[in-house]
Amino acid sequence: MGRVTASYAPRVRVGLLTKEWPPDVYGGAGVHVQQLAEQLQRLIEVEVQCFGAPRPDAHAYDVPEGLRAANPALQTLAVDIEMVAGLGPVDLVHSHTWYANLAGQVAGRLQGVPHVLTAHSLEPLRPWKVEQLGGGYRLSSWVEESAYRGADRIIAVSAGMAADITAAYPFVDPAAISVVHNGIDTSVFRPDPDTSALAACGVSGSRPYALFVGRITPQKGLPHLLAAARHFDPGLDLVICASSPETPELGAQVEQAIAELGRERGAGRVVWIREHVDRRTLIQLLTHALVFLCPSIYEPLGIVNLEAMACETAVVASAVGGIPEVVVEGDTGTLVAYTPDDPAAFERGIADAVNALAHEPQRAAAMGRAGRERAMAHFSWQAIAQQTVSVYEETLATF
Questions:
Q1: pTM, whole model, 2 decimals?
Q2: Measured in whole angstroms, how far is the alpha carbon of residue 352 from the centre of its chain?
Q3: Which CATH superfamily is domain 3-183+380-398 in?
Q4: Residue 4: its pLDDT value, please?
Q5: What is the CATH number of domain 196-378?
Q6: Within the chain, which residues score under 50 in pLDDT?
Q7: For the segment 369-378, what is each residue's pLDDT rounded down to a tens digit?
Q8: CA distances from residue 319 to 174, 294, 299, 301, 366 in whole angstroms, order as listed
Q9: How far apart are alpha carbons 237 and 371 in whole angstroms?
């Protein structure tokens, strides 16, 4: 269980270490690991180690009983050690996010094999987490920094992410970083003419709408979007698919802002979907949106932008991190400068970009078509898996 053999020469055996694995996938890193593993298994031998309940296709580890009341960061480290103990003989270990970085470091040293890590985000660039996690954030930051010091190769999901790594961790040799983008399965994420899932979510099919999909976390910029939406064209609805607030305080702030916006715009004009939606529903929401909104203040790449583009939807996004490597200004969407010292300007920029497309729906449709073409041409998981295997081979050759 957890190991799939494929024909590839030489047959490299990789231990893929991750917190998220289906059915427990809740963020972009989890989507990345799932899709990457599926394609890697066609090329090499992959053994997946993950957190949580038993799975038919991975080795899963729960928090040891004696630590279930401990700090969550400490629980994470305990699961990491369980993963190392359960990992079979491999040629290389590949960890994703700080949650699995310690496992990658220890497993690499224990088995005498190289450790490759993929950088999906960086703890120093998410300082708001200290308010949520306290000592847990200090522990996660220490784990991540140690992993970047000891990793044999680092994969960045964008050139922007690579620049962030060398800025946050100047001890990292830029030559040790390889850029391999996130990808998208365009055979799954494609326009769906059906609207039955929209009706079930309370979304009117008679009016155009702008769509946000993301967790309720400062990183995703939802409060900025809600402020901007007060200035959206009155003919445009807003659909917010947002759940899992990082803190009760942030959840309450967002709930109040959505309620106020709903009163301003009128009954049924702001729809909040609070639950995590299934893939079929997500694809229909993306397909039928006039525009997809990504107001993130920090985003190494943003898989959800690729998902929107693959469904032929124009994107309005902040010009941060790796987003400009995905969304082409004026072609597949509009990029808005993020101005942390002037949030009102950022919010006005979002509103102006959205309203411009609301007034020119044909232009939005053309951007959507260009977005799908770009997703198919540049972000296929097959190509990304091949690039990842090349990184493995280069790392093994120099280890």
A1: 0.76
A2: 26
A3: Glycogen Phosphorylase B; (3.40.50.2000)
A4: 43
A5: 3.40.50.2000
A6: 1, 3-9
A7: 999 999 998 8
A8: 23, 10, 9, 11, 21
A9: 22
